C-alpha cells in the first residue's frame, strides 16, 4: 500500500519533469533524463544523506521503470498530460505529503534526531523538483513565491517530533497535501523580501 | 591498463571543462575548478551512490593531478587544444564508453541489481559533463539534442544485464564510443518534443 | 571554542545566502532555503564524501537553527545586514579559513590521503557558496575573477600535507582569511583566459 503510494508519487514527480522537458523542446532522451531526475532525485539524496547505498530508487527496478515510463508518457502524449493537468497537480501534492512523511520516518529509523529528520524529510519531498529545475536551467520553483517546501517541512516535523503512529503519519501526509492544494487553488503566497536600495 | 584508460578518460573530460571555462573567460582558478568538476564529477557521484567513501577520485592522487593538469593545459594553450579538437572529442567518446562500462561493473560488484547498475554506469559516464554545465550556468548538454547519454546507458546495460567477461566489457565500451562518434560525424539527433499549444 | 567558531562560520555563510535571496526578491521561505543551502551545503557534501551519515549539519540541531536564524535576519532586516556588510564579509572570510582547515583535518582523520584531504577541505569551504549560487540561478562566484577557492585550498593543503598540530591549524586558517581579506581590499584578481578566435 505504502509502496504503491510511493510509486504514484514518483510517477507524478517524474511527469512534472517530463512536461518541463517538453516545454523546453528537448529530445526524447532529455525528457526521460529530466523525468528520472524529478522522480528519483529526492529519494536518492535522502538515502545518500542517511548512508543507505545504493539508494532504494536505484536498487529497486520499479522506481526507475515508473519514472522512465512517466517520461515517455509526457514525451509521446504531452497534450493528454497537459489536459490532465489537474490530476497531475493532485498527484504531485499527494507525493509531496507522502515523501515528506516517509522521508522523516526513514530518517528517524536511521538515527537522525528530530530536527535532522525534518530536514531530510523536506529534502526528500522537494529534492526531485530542485534537481529538475537546476538541470533545466531554471532557478528552483521552491525558491519563488509558492507554498511548496513549507507544508512538506510541517508534515515532516509532525512525524519527526511527534509520535510515529500510522494515524499521525497519515494525518500529517494529508495535511501537507491539503495545504498545498489550498495554496494552489486560492493563490496563497508568502511575503516577498523588499531589497534595500543599493 | 584499465587504470591508464581511466585516467585518459578523466583527462579528456577535464579538458572539456577547461575549454568551456576558457570560452566563458574565467580566470585560471575557475578554469581548473571546472576541469576538476568535469573530470571527477561522474566518478565521485558513482562512488557516493555506492557508499565508497572517500570516492576513488578523491582518495587517489592521480585523478586530481590529471584533471588539474588538463585544466592548466586548457588555460595556457587553448588554441592548441582547440586545434586538437578532433582528438579531444575522440578521447571524450572513449571516456564515455569506458566510464559507463567500468561504472556498471563496479556497481554490480557492490551489490546493485542490473537496472540500478545501468543507471549508476550512465551517471558515471555523463555526471562530469552535467556538473561542468550546471556550474558554468548552462543547461546540461545531455538534455539537448545530442546522442550522448543513450550510448552510455546502452553499454552500461549490456554489462549490467549480460555476462561480465572482459570480452563483453571491451565490446560494450567500444560500441558506446562508436555510436557516439558516428552520431557526431553524421549529425544524428533524436526526435524533439512538440509542446502542445498553451 | 572550535564549535562556536564553526557556528559563526555557518551563520556568516547563511547570511550571504539570505542576502542573495533578498536581492532576488524571493519570499521568506526561499530566503531561508537559500540560507540553509549556503550555511550547510559545504559541510553536508564534506560529510557525504567521507561517509559520515547523517551529516553533522543535519544531525546536530544547532547548525540548522543557526542557518535558519541567519535566513530570518536577512529577510527581516536586510538594510541592517547590508549596513553591516563589512562585518559579514569579515565573518565570511573567517568561515572560509576555518571550514577549509577543519574540513581537511576531518578528512585526514577519516583516512583520506593528503591530496584528497586538500580537495575535501576546499569543498567544505566553498561548497555552500556554490550551492547558493546554483540554486539562485547564478554561475558560482568562485568560477569568476575572485580569489576565493585558492586561499581555502592553500590552507587545506598546509593542514593535509603538514603536521596537524593546533598551532599549524590556527596559522593556516588565519592565512586563508588574511589572503581573502587582502584580495577583497586590494581588488586582487587572477589572470583571465583569452579564448582563441573561433
Output the keywords.
9 helices; 77% helix; mainly alpha; homotrimer; globular; 198 residues
Report what the structure shows.
Three copies of one chain form a homotrimer. Helices cover 77% and strands 0% of the residues of chain A. The first copy, chain A, is globular, with a radius of gyration of 16 Å. The relative contact order of chain A is 0.15. The model of chain A has no long low-confidence stretch (mean pLDDT 89). By secondary structure, chain A is mainly alpha-helical. The A-B interface holds A 21-31, 33-34, 36, 44, 48, 51, 53-55, 58-61, 64-65, 75, 78-79, 82, 134-137 and B 48-51, 107, 110-116, 119-120, 130, 134, 138-140, 142-145, 147, 149-150, 189-196.
Radius of gyration of chain A: 16 Å
User: What do the pLDDT scores of chain A average to?
Assistant: 89
| Tally of DSSP β-strands of chain A | 0
Q: Describe the oligomeric state of these chains in a short phrase.
A: homotrimer
The shape of chain A is globular
Distance between termini of chain A? Answer: 54 Å
Give the SSE layout.
3 copies of one chain form a homotrimer.
Chain A lengths: L1 H22 L4 H23 L5 H4 L1 H16 L1 H6 L1 H25 L4 H22 L13 H13 L4 H21 L12
Helix pairs in contact in A: 1-2, 1-4, 1-6, 1-7, 2-4, 2-7, 6-7, 6-8, 6-9, 7-8, 8-9
